[in-house]
């Protein structure tokens, strides 16, 4: 187990103040997490270099954006509801290049099961299981599912399967 030296708790949470009002942060790439985290809402640290936050690219009621800092200080972001990472950083006024430290060595890219901690993925997608449970209760009570509810169930299933694939589960 190893990790970068620099560790700082993000000053996250509702109403967390922005670092800069200028909107451009391309210069402050010394530590990408310091650029990204203050811009996110409802940031919660799950462990060293691992956070969960509200996704800025969609109407995210339960935080479903995973953020991870790799050993070379690159930041990985993933919206478990399916927003492309480029959209996520664009919604924050950043670019994908802001997620990389100024100098990158030639490490091999992380394989899927190395990118995310399954426990963190579950924290992000737990709300989808709740959707399924509520629908099951409705059915058990003899209620009929509306088309919109059935569509939402389908979305929950897709998100859960996408999350499984992201951590290296095949099929
Ligand atoms: Zn999203």
Helix-strand blueprint:
Layout (H helix, E strand, L loop, with lengths): L31 H5 L7 E4 L2 E4 L11 E5 L5 E5 L5 H7 L20 H4 L2 H23 L6 H20 L5
Antiparallel strand pairs: 1-2, 2-3, 3-4
The structure holds zinc ion (ZN).
Zinc ion binds next to loops.
Description:
The relative contact order is 0.14. Helix content is 35%, strand content 11%. The chain has a domain at 118-166. It has a four-stranded antiparallel β-sheet, covered by helices on one side. The radius of gyration is 18 Å and the shape is elongated. It has helices at residues 32-36, 85-91, 112-115, 118-140, 147-166, and strands spanning 44-47, 50-53, 65-69, 75-79. It contains five helices and four strands. It is α+β, with helices and mostly antiparallel strands and 171 residues long. Bound molecules: zinc ion. Zinc ion binds at residues 55, 57-58, 60, 79, 81, 83. Zinc ion (ZN) binds next to loops.
